[in-house]
Amino acid sequence: MDGNAHDVLAAYESAMFSGDRAKGLQRGSAIKAQFLRWEITEPRAAQPHVLSSLGPVTVHFIVELAERVNNGEHGVALFNAERQLMWASAERNLLIEPGIHVFSHSFPSLPLRPGVYQWQVSLWDSGDTMDTWDCIPEMTIATEVHQHYMDEWNGILNLPSQFVLGTPEERIVERASNL
Q1: In this structure, what DSSP letter does residue 10 have?
Q2: Of 27, 57, 170, 174, which sits with the fewest C-beta atoms within 10 Å of its C-beta?
Q3: Which of 111, 130, 113 is nearest to 121 (CA)?
């Protein structure tokens, strides 16, 4: 494939891994719930596991339940390639009927440095684990790089910023005009 490094890497990783877990619950087994797959749904892209913009992001985790969840807790966490926790959250007191459900998480942005990240999702009922999944394939952040040009000064965040060079007098005038 020809293109920029982020796009080629993302295509390679997508080809190596499938986003689908098993083909669903094996009825009659002891499995009560199973996360089946995940995808980035906003922004919509040809590769559902690659994020290439810094705008709003929505991620869906699809789960199949064999039985009702009465006092559920859904956890989600995002780790970098070194397994450092980037973010985590939990929803509690969930009541969910059997069937296939979408757990949707929306963010104003995921301003992470380009690279590979992994979601982990879980579902519990009354303190008992129903399923925990380290999502495959991993998520690739393939956004434009807003980092220091020297690797040792690159951080976890990939935040665009604006730089303006001026004199103190210009800054005073600018502040006064904003009032």
Answers
A1: H
A2: 27
A3: 130
| The pLDDT of residue 121 | 98
Q: Give all domains of the chain, ordered by start, each with its CATH number.
A: 5-178 (2.70.50.60)
Q: How far apart are CA 96 and CA 60, in angstroms?
A: 16
The pair of structure tokens assigned to 123 is 């579902």
Residue 130, burial from CB neighbour count under 10 angstroms (0-12, 13-18, 19+): buried
Angle at 22 between CA 18 and CA 27, to 5 degrees: 165
3-state secondary structure of 147: coil
Euclidean distance between CA atoms 165 and 160, whole angstroms: 17
**Residue ranges of the chain whose pLDDT lies below 70:** 1-30, 171-179
113-132 pLDDT per residue, tens: 999 999 999 999 999 999 99
